[in-house]
UniProtKB/TrEMBL annotation:
PROSITE patterns: G_PROTEIN_RECEP_F1_2. GO terms for cellular component: membrane. It comes from Pristionchus entomophagus. Keywords: Membrane, Transmembrane, Transmembrane helix. This is G-protein coupled receptors family 1 profile domain-containing protein. The chain crosses the membrane at residues 59-77, 97-118. Residues 1-116 form the G-protein coupled receptors family 1 profile domain. It is found in: Membrane.
Amino acid sequence: MVDTDQISCELVVMRKKTSLMSFSDVVSHLRRSSRRLSSMPLHGATAQPMWRRRIRGKLFRSTLLIVAAHFLFWFPYNFAAVVTYVNIDYKEFIAMHVYFLNDLQILITIVNPMLYAMMK
């Protein structure tokens, strides 16, 4: 796969080899190099191969899932700790539901390997 920077470098090298390139030479060189880039659709100002965009999208999704799972499973436990620290009256109420919070901590250890397995 050829990168656009490599194409421009090739043009500079060709320009240095020959004192002056004709417009038709430049166009024919770009056409030949565009055939090599045909599997690489343009993305913004730079050309990126499709597989690279797919990996980045998949990586972003899996990272987002891992962070969201971590937040969802640990937030109730941390929220209960902060509420208990702020107001001691809620300590009895939270003590009744502490088993649920502990179950969430155990559940995240089961969910995490599944999320990491989805990355592959």
